[in-house]
Amino acid sequence: MAYKDDSLYLEQIRNGNTNAYAMLINKHKTMAFNVALRITRNREDAEEVIQDAFLKVYYSLKDFEGKSKFSTWLYKIVYNQAISKIRKKSIAQSDINEEIINNFTVGNISRDLNYLASEDQTKYINLALSKLPEEDSAIVTLFYLNESSIEEVSEITGLSESNVKVKLHRSRKKMYEELKQLLNNEVNTLL
């Protein structure tokens, strides 16, 4: 189904059309769930987070001023709900390993991934993403999978743009090392 621009749905909602809210949610529910899942790392918690976030969005729509895209505003609410959820569960976050990775090139890992079937690529990328701290995994998901800009990721997460860039850089390095190890292990099991 081809969805309309968010502003059209928002206008319909303001005019009392509750079906427009359902369309708006259907348009964004997959990415909202992915963001929540990357942070909570638990399907049930992610489902609870997006339910809470969608309720919060519904009751706060009158406060949405349109200074940013609706999706940015929505993902910020989802992000904050998910962070609150993991804080309540007292899950300790680990820091990214700060060691310098020698000979890091995106081309090498990209070339290696191209040899794999599409579903295998997705499997290994998701495994590598799961090794990142929750916040970093969410940032990578927003930037690469949702194709949000640095500015939008900054607005969603509340981090400065430079901090988002640093976290993306470190996350790519960490994912590179994880993918290298996963692919190495895969090759060793085949030999």
Structural account:
The structure is a single chain. The chain is mainly alpha-helical. It has two domains: 6-88, RNA polymerase sigma factor, region 2, helix turn helix motif (Rna Polymerase Sigma Factor, Chain: A), CATH 1.10.1740; 106-190, Arc Repressor Mutant, subunit A, CATH 1.10.10. It is 74% helix and 0% strand. The protein contains nine helices and no strands. The termini are far apart. Mean pLDDT is 82; it is low at 91-105.
Question: CATH architecture of the largest domain, please?
Answer: Orthogonal Bundle
Helix content: over 70%
| CATH top level assignment of the largest domain | Mainly Alpha
The overall pLDDT average reads: 82
What class would the helix/strand composition place it in? mainly alpha
Q: In this structure, how is the largest beta sheet organized?
A: none
What is the tally of beta strands?
Answer: 0
The gist of it:
The chain is mostly helical.
Keywords:
elongated; 74% helix; Arc Repressor Mutant, subunit A; 191 residues; mainly alpha; Rna Polymerase Sigma Factor, Chain: A; 2 domains
How are the SSEs ordered, and which strands pair?
Layout lengths: L5 H9 L3 H23 L2 H18 L9 H19 L17 H9 L3 H14 L2 H12 L4 H8 L3 H30 L1
